[in-house]
Design a protein that fits this description.
The chain is built from 13 helices and no strands. The chain is mainly α. The protein has two domains: 228 residues, no CATH class; 94 residues, no CATH class. The chain is elongated. It starts with 5 loop residues before the first helix and ends with a helix.
Length: 383
C-alpha cells in the first residue's frame, strides 16, 4: 500500500495531535500520583497501629543487627491481619479508581486518534484524486464513532484489573512456594533463584500479552460500538486477519522502547555517579525529573502504537482501487485493440480502388457519357 505506512501514521498522529499523548500522560499520572498518596497514607496508618515498647526502642538504638531484628519481630508480631486488611482495602480503592480513569481516558484518546487518522486518510484519498470513491462511500467517514458506550469499556478495564490481580497473586505464589524446593537436607539456592526468575518472567510475559490484547480491544468499542466480549472477538479477528501489519507495528515500537530504555538508563547513571560530589537531594531531584521524562515518552509511544493499529483499520482502499484499475485496463486493452484492428482492416478495404476500373480522365479516347435517361430533352431528340 504505497503512501500509507501504519507505523509512520502512528508517529505522525502524536505530532499532529499532541493533545492526545498529553491527555494520556495526564490520566495516567493522576492515577499514579493518587496511588502513591493512598499507599503512603495507608502505610502511615498501618505503622501507627504497631505497638512499640521502650525495650523495642532501646534495641533499635543499639545498632546491633541481632537486637534490631528481635525488636522488629516483636513490633510486627500479630499485625499480619491488619496488613492484609489494609492491602485489600487499598487494592480495591485503587482498582475502582483505575477502572474509572482508564475508561474515560482511553475512550477519549482512542476517539481523538480515530478522528486524526481518518482526516489523514481522507487527505491521502484526495491527493490521489479519488473523489468518486469518496462520493460512493468507499472512503472513510468524516468523524469517529460517537455511539460507544462507557459501560462496555469499563467492563473491559474491569476484566483487565481482575487479570492484573490474578498476575499479582501468581507472583506472590511463586515467591512463597519456590523456596520450598530447597530444604536443609538438600539445599538448592541457585535452582530456586533461577526458577523464581523464570516463573516471574513467564507471569509478566503472559500478563503483558493479555493486557496488550485487552487494550487493543478498546479500539473496537470506540470505533464500532461493540460490547466488552464483542470487542474481544473483534480484536482476535483483527489479529488473525492482519497478523503481518500488527506484528510489524509491535516490532518497531518494541525496538523503539528498548532503545529508549537503554538510553534512559545511561542518562540516569550519570547523575547517580556523582552522588559523592553533589548533594544527595539534588541528585534525587534530577533522577526523579529524568524518570518522569522517560515515563512521559513511554506513554507517548503507547499512544503512537494505538494510532498505528487504528491506521491499519482506517487505511484508504488504495489496493482495491489499484486492482480495479488494473482489471479495467486489462478488460479495455483487448477491446481497444480489436476495435483498432477492425477499423484498420475495414478502412483499407473500403478505401481500396479497383485497379481494373477505368477512372474518368485517365484516357482521352473515352467518349463522354450521354445525357441521362430521365432528361426529357434528350428523349425527344432521339425520337
Amino acid at each position: 500500500m504505497a503512501g500509507w505506512s501504519p507505523t509512520l501514521e502512528g508517529f505522525r498522529a502524536i505530532f499532529r495531535r499532541p493533545s492526545v499523548p498529553l491527555a494520556e500522560v495526564i490520566w495516567r499520572w493522576c492515577f499514579g500520583g493518587t496511588a502513591l498518596l493512598l499507599a503512603a497514607f495507608a502505610a502511615i496508618e498501618y505503622f501507627d497501629t504497631l505497638p512499640v515498647s521502650n525495650a523495642d526502642l532501646f534495641y533499635l538504638r543499639t545498632g546491633q543487627p541481632f537486637l534490631i531484628s528481635q525488636a522488629i519481630s516483636c513490633i510486627f508480631a500479630g499485625s499480619g491481619l491488619r496488613f492484609v486488611i489494609a492491602a485489600i482495602v487499598l487494592s480495591a480503592a485503587l482498582a475502582i479508581l483505575w477502572i474509572v480513569l482508564a475508561s474515560i481516558g482511553r475512550g477519549a484518546t482512542v476517539d481523538d486518534l480515530l478522528r486524526c487518522v481518518r482526516e489523514r486518510a481522507r487527505g491521502v484519498l484526495a491527493a490521489r484524486k479519488t473523489e468518486e470513491q469518496i462520493l460512493n462511500g468507499e472512503a472513510v467517514a468524516d468523524t469517529a464513532s460517537s455511539h460507544w458506550r462507557l459501560r462496555s469499556i469499563a467492563g473491559l478495564h474491569f476484566l483487565r484489573a481482575g487479570l492484573g490481580l490474578a498476575a499479582t497473586l501468581a507472583c506472590f505464589a511463586v515467591v512463597i512456594f519456590a523456596p520450598l524446593l530447597s530444604t536443609k537436607e538438600h539445599p538448592h539456592p541457585a535452582i530456586v533463584f533461577l526458577l523464581t526468575l523464570f516463573f516471574l518472567f513467564a507471569v509478566w510475559l503472559i500478563w503483558s500479552s493479555v493486557s496488550w490484547f485487552v487494550s487493543l480491544a478498546s479500539i473496537f468499542i470506540v470505533r464500532e460500538g461493540d460490547t466488552t466480549f464483542g470487542a474481544l472477538a473483534s480484536a482476535l479477528n483483527f489479529c488473525l486477519d492482519r497478523s503481518g501489519p500488527v506484528a510489524v507495528i509491535g516490532t518497531w515500537f518494541g525496538l523503539t522502547h528498548v532503545v529508549l530504555f537503554f538510553a534512559a538508563s545511561s542518562v540516569l547513571a550519570f547523575p547517580l555517579s556523582l552522588v559523592g560530589l553533589l548533594p544527595v537531594g539534588f541528585v534525587i531531584t534530577v533522577v526523579a525529573i529524568l524518570a518522569l521524562v522517560y515515563f512521559a515518552i513511554v506513554d507517548t509511544l503507547y499512544v503512537a502504537r494505538l494510532a498505528g493499529y487504528v491506521a491499519i483499520l482506517e487505511a484508504p482502499p488504495m489496493v482495491a482501487m489499484a486492482v480495479a484499475a488494473q482489471t479495467t485496463l486489462a478488460e479495455m486493452a483487448p477491446t481497444g485493440f480489436s476495435t483498432q484492428h477492425s477499423a484498420l482492416s475495414v478502412q483499407p478495404e473500403s478505401a481500396m480502388v479497383d485497379q481494373e476500373e477505368l477512372i474518368l480522365g485517365d484516357r482521352g479516347d473515352v467518349e463522354s457519357p450521354g445525357p441521362p435517361l430521365d432528361d426529357p430533352g434528350s428523349v425527344s431528340d432521339k425520337q
